[in-house]
Batch of 2 targets.
Target 1
Amino acid sequence: MHNDEFDWEEKPELNITPLVDIMLVLLAILMVSTPTLTYQEDITLPKGSKSKKAAQDSMLEIRVSADRKIYIRDNVYEFKNFADSFVLFSKNFDKDINVFIRADKNLKYEDVIYILKTAKEAGFLKVSLITSS
């Protein structure tokens, strides 16, 4: 009994198009997400007092809080009296050291520029703003 309607010799074809589509989507996701992965290593540095002291003497950090209080090392200054106080404070410093200004992001632009200008007018040559990454 041979039926002519069905051709049993025909082999089924494997359709790999959906598989290729899925692999390309996974590859695209991998390529997009890989640069955003960050690996954080916890590194415990050895204790050392000399290098920390040397680093502290070679730089000066001015921190400005959101309520316009200015902190330099152990001193706290009011914003309106800062210019005169900073000139007196900075007399004993080498003017070639790095001065970093770390200001709260909610402060007005003019306030931060005022601090920057005061540090420049006090004679410091290397004054820069610190931003968060």
Target 2
Amino acid sequence: MTDSPAEPPSTARDGRLSYAVFQLARAHRGHAATMLRGMNLHPGQELLLMQLFDRDGQTQSELQEGVGLDHSTVSKSLRRMQEAGLLTREPAAHDRRALVVRLTDAGRALRAPITDMWRTLEDISVRELTAEQIETFTAYAHTIERSIKDSGRPSPGDG
């Protein structure tokens, strides 16, 4: 690695890992946003499209659960994507209150460019890492994510 990371602010010195995760996420998201602009997409919209590539015709609630974003963010993104001609939203036959989201041909056409974007982002992200380091980092990242998600739940012995 070439550059040493900047020293975190004094208030973050007891949270060095958390500050590093924040810096990493910001850099990664910023680079992804630049790549997405080339496809006329906003960050997060590709995640919704990826869910639909795997299973078209999901309800808005299913999509929201799949990407882990709040209702208003998903609703706003889907509205913009519908206005851009990437998808349609129609009331579900089983429940008129639920909206079923389906890709249009224009939306389906983004599958290859989004796949290429994620492959390129991965190549950039791991270019100075070995395969073993990638596996180790990925495992640690999932462990940290689980720890954060579980932080609000009571421990098995609590109660």
